Amino acid sequence: MKFPVPHDVKAQTIPGTEGWERMYPYQYQFVTDDPARNAYEKETFWFYDGLHYPEPLYPFDTIWDEAWYLALSQFNNRIFMVPPVRGVDHRIINGYVYISPVPVKDPEEIGKRVPNFMERAGYYYKNWDALEAKWKVKMEATIRELEALKIPRLAEMEDLSVVTDAVGESKGYHLLKNYDDLINLGIKCWQYHFEFLNLGYAAYVFFLDFVQKQFPSIPAQRVTQMISGIDVIMYEPDEQLKKLARKAIELGVDSAVTFSPEWTVVEDALKKTPKGVEWLTSLNLAREPWFNISTGTGWFHHDRSWNDQMNVPLSGIATYIGKLKQGASIDRPTEKVRAERDRITKEYRDLIQKEEDRKQFDELLGCAKTVFPYVENHLFYVEHWFHSVFWNKMREVAAIMKEHGVIADVEDVWLLKRDEIKSALWDIVTAWATGVTPRGAQTWPKEISWRKGVMQKFKEWKAPPAIGTAPEVIQEPFTIVLWGVTNKSLQDWASVQEVKDPEKITELKGFAGSPGIIEGKARVCRTVSEVGQLQEGEILVAPTTSPSWAPAFAKIGACITDVGGVMSHAAIVCREYGMPAVVGTGHATKIIRTGMKLRVDGSTGTVAIARWRGGRAHCRAKSRAAGRALRGAPAAGVWFDECLKESVPLVGGKNASLGELINAQVRVPPGFALTTEGYRRFMAEAGLELEVAARLACADTEDLEALERISASIRSLIEDHPFPQEIEDLVAECYRKLSLRSCLPAVPVAVRSSATAEDTAGASFAGQQDTYLWIRGVDEVLHHVRRCISSLYTARAIAYRARQGWSDDTLAISVGVQKMANAYTAGVMFTLDPANGDRSVIVIDSNFGFGESVVSGEVTPDHFVVNKVTLDIIDRTIARKELCYTVDAKNQVSRAIEVPSERQNVQSLIDDEITELAWIGKQIEKHYGAPMDIEWAVDKDLPLGRQHLHPPGTARDRVEPAAESARPPAPARPWTTSVAACSPASA
């Protein structure tokens, strides 16, 4: 897979930006004058780091990119010696940062790094809590040092104390020194930032890797769910807003707090009343440190803190006041999230087969839960608290530069690199020292004016999500879990890029960040200032999100982002609020516009735009009530409802399995059985037992021709002899009631043999007895019941029993009469993945009409993969289905027909049916205690009722249902038509 060549992208210079490269460090440039570096850059895959930089990077703001460029890479490659990856390389095109993981390619070197990593990382994991406590002390001390740092103004004359105290240093010197200290504190802060972070993500990745090896189809979001519901510091600023909202209502000042969006107006009004002053006191106590939260990611100078832009927290407080007055809850559904977390964790753990694997699962999960709080908590200390103070300290530096005429406005300082600022400060202090005008007063304003124009052009440029040649496999953990860059996401990005007309795009794909499905209108918000426009229930579409956007999550229905993986902010918060999220789409803010109707599927990572098929968000199937048993039926016949596994001597293997599953709450098409008692009564009263025994006594099982003649005579004898009146009346009455139960005047049925010796240990009678389909009317049912009985005496069956040493006088047969599954859609279902044995998924193949086209392989069916634990549809492939099987109305046999062209690419199952089928499969597997292979049908006649199954290991005779070209008006429901054991080893 290839994306644009980086050098070609860079060569397409935006008119008016020629020379932009001087705005950034020289090592960030893609080059053509160094053959070795040029070749490396061409062969490398680079992706746009929109997670951190959703807009072009101002020259000074590059400081944080440089800081993590160093910190992440050094901890990976020089301190902890992470075996498969060194660090992350960086480049810039038109102000946009592109990054690339640097792998360790030599297997021998990876092996040498392993023991070093185990020793060093192992020390941190074993002593995590104690080391993290030390980290917090170091980090808070660094912030306090930053807060105490003075940026001195340059006075006309130094204070006399410089002389009398023999200071020996000037304010000019201290300006230069303190600027260096400011920058060095920033770099030092980012050293601490990555002290634990790589290990935090690594612990998660180790757990993810282990679980995905156990369950190859498990979505990454399900693994992250297992460590959700953990309180972290990053939620505290938002919790403070909720407390202030409750306090405002409690004090009766809620109207004053909400009557204006302008903080200064609200503050003035509150100061006029004692209750208002009390509320302001509470707010001021919360501001330090919790309002040192950035309104953006904290990576940009314009991401002012709440303390700097009080309108932002005021908007959040007003939102919460409104919800409280409506009687709505504003709390995160933490207990619900934890309950679901524990359920999912237990179900996956229970699917692990080996005890040693379960033990490792527990250990890795415990480690991931231990380290997870740091992964989120460090953000508050670094990107928010430290950065908020840092940006304002830099503004103090800029104020001095403005005072000396080097820049026209304080905010112009961001257009200079940090080393350019240091040079400008040297210019200022030397000019101040000598009493002349700084040279920069002439040079920098012109350059800054030009750079402003360049930045505006950069903002209008659309950065491609990736450039270069994609690797065969992306393995670097940060790349996957934080940025959401995988081989699949690259394919999705590339497919969107190939569409010439964006207006024709109806679906975007990204990372499944948080499960669930919702439909609603889009609201595109590129900055936190636009979040106030969100309406209740809208779907937030953003480049990325940050903690300051937290109040929005109490209002929205779902979230979509351009960038991010399963550990990005949007994914984590949506999981905590229990709402869908699709992250890492690459193009959402470019394709989606405010007001568009969307369907967000956070379980599969898909976003449908404007049009979609199917109904409302699906619900899990619920257990159905057991069917009514017809008690007191004669011993010669029973309803399936009355059969259990202990009933095999009376009703045979197939019929016993039907009853067993009905009583296990599995839907099986209704029916009844002529019991072995009915069979024996028929054979005895008609004198057939002795006649059959006499003819079999003459049989030579080695003379096949003679055996066929004996078989034909026995079968003719049985089929031509009428049932006793009692049995005829019994079958007729049961068939009449079955027709009433099915709401059909003459219900079509399958008449199926069910022998008592069927598939016993050491023997298999599969296919030796008959099944007849689409039988209608009492006379035809009676005739085909006799044909089933006679099939006990086919030449093949007689010979097989003789070879197995079975005595015919101990043999008996039951016959089941079951409502035909009048299939709109049918197919097969496996309660594991037959490709890799993954027991955490259910695989469903389907086509219109009978299941014959799927089982026989005549068509490529629609293919669905469902998460067994959550019943989310995690993968779907809609095939072109050119034929299906239906019933011939005249002769009541199945026949192949062509699927109308307009329906060939239509999904043959709606999502509700897929989910319910998976639930049924899960119940069947639970009942039998082993993976199962199931044939099923969506029956048009039976929106409510039960279905047919075979026990594990029995012959899987297929019921052939009917199909039509249009969905019936009544709701159709999935019904099982056959079941067999499915071994992972045979996959």
Record keyword descriptors for this entry.
987 residues, 8-stranded mixed β-sheet, 6-stranded antiparallel β-sheet, 44% helix, disordered C terminus
Terminus-to-terminus distance = 30 Å
Put simply, the count of helices is: 30
- What average pLDDT do the residues reach? 85
Give the biggest beta sheet.
8 strands, mixed
* Class by SSE composition: alpha+beta
- The strand line-up of the biggest sheet is 5-12-11-7-8-9-10-6
Q: What's the quaternary structure here?
A: single chain
| Apparent shape | elongated
- Rg from alpha-carbon coordinates: 37 Å
Proportion of residues in helical segments: 40-55%
Provide the low-confidence segments as ranges: 611-634, 759-767, 943-971, 983-987
Beta fraction of the residues? 5-15%
SS elements, strand count:
25
Give your account of this protein's structure.
This protein is of the alpha+beta class. Helix content is 44%, strand content 14%. Helix 5 (128-148) runs antiparallel to helix 7, helix 7 (171-214) packs antiparallel against helix 15 and helix 24 runs antiparallel to helix 25. The longest helix is centred in the middle third of the chain and has 49 residues, at 355-403. The chain is elongated and about 135 Å long.
Brief overview, please?
The protein is an alpha+beta fold.
Blueprint of the fold:
Elements: H1 6-11, H2 35-43, E1 45-48, H3 62-79, E2 85-93, E3 96-103, H4 107-126, H5 128-148, H6 161-164, H7 171-214, H8 220-225, H9 236-251, H10 254-258, H11 263-270, H12 274-290, H13 311-325, H14 334-351, H15 355-403, H16 418-434, H17 440-460, E4 466-468, H18 477-481, H19 487-497, E5 507-509, E6 511-514, E7 517-524, E8 539-542, E9 558-561, H20 569-577, E10 581-583, H21 588-591, E11 597-601, E12 606-609, E13 637-639, H22 648-662, E14 671-674, H23 676-685, H24 688-697, H25 704-720, H26 725-741, E15 749-755, E16 771-775, H27 778-790, H28 795-804, E17 813-819, E18 823-830, E19 841-848, H29 852-855, E20 862-867, E21 873-877, E22 883-887, E23 894-898, H30 911-928, E24 932-939, E25 973-981
Parallel strand pairs: 7-8, 8-9, 9-10
Antiparallel strand pairs: 1-3, 1-4, 2-3, 5-12, 6-10, 7-11, 11-12, 13-14, 14-17, 15-16, 15-17, 18-19, 18-24, 19-20, 20-21, 22-23, 24-25
Helix pairs in contact: 3-7, 5-7, 5-15, 7-15, 7-16, 9-12, 9-13, 24-25, 25-27, 26-27
